[in-house]
Amino acid sequence: MSKVTIRIRPLTEADAEPFARFRGEIPAEDERARATLPLDDELRRSFEVFRAGLPLPAPNSVLGAFASGELVGAVVMVWPGALSPSQDSANLWGMFVLPRMRGHGIGQLLVRQAVAHAFGLGMRCIELQLLKPNDAALRLYRSQGFEVFEPDGNAMYFPGSYQDCTHMRIDNPLPGTLPDGTQEVTP
């Protein structure tokens, strides 16, 4: 396998067209990665829909992985909200790497960057729901420190059926750590 140089950065409005193309490349058999949108619906979405959604309002983020300037992977991190009882936890909402680019460690880089971003903002933990079966993703998340905390039958509805999920989580080893590595302390 040849070496690939990957650059990871937050997506902006200027990335709307590449992001739309990227999502259109998700194979029909991986429809669940598009968060329930069938491929035909995805391909009908205009660039303006994507442009209006990028970047996500802070502290939410979409990080993109670029190889030779092409968007080949993305991860979405969302926070429930300032008024939520889980305001200090983030959700890894979705991650996808184009099938032709798998095996280069891009998924690991995206997850690592997303975790660093969330913990750098002082998040206590990150949770995710992994649709079953997805052994490759389960291995990836476990390799990055996520642990299964709850299996959940019929957790998500996709057209025509409910899907089983595995809930996973990683805790910040240094809660209150600021991006510069210093600790936030309440006297």
Strand order of the largest sheet: 1-2-3-4-5-7-6
Shape: globular
Report the average pLDDT across residues.
76
CATH architecture: 3-Layer(aba) Sandwich
Q: Can you give the helix content as a percent range?
A: 10-25%
Unreliable stretches: 33-39, 178-183
- Count of helices? 5
Strand content: 25-35%
CA distance, first residue to last residue? 53 Å
CATH T-level topology: Aminopeptidase
- CATH class (first level) name: Alpha Beta
Task: Name the structural class.
Answer: alpha+beta
Reported for the largest beta sheet, the result is: 7 strands, mixed
Order of helices and strands: EHHHEEEHEHEE
- Integer count of domains: 1
What name goes with the CATH superfamily? Gcn5-related N-acetyltransferase (GNAT)
Computed over alpha carbons, the radius of gyration is 17 Å
The total of beta strands comes to 7
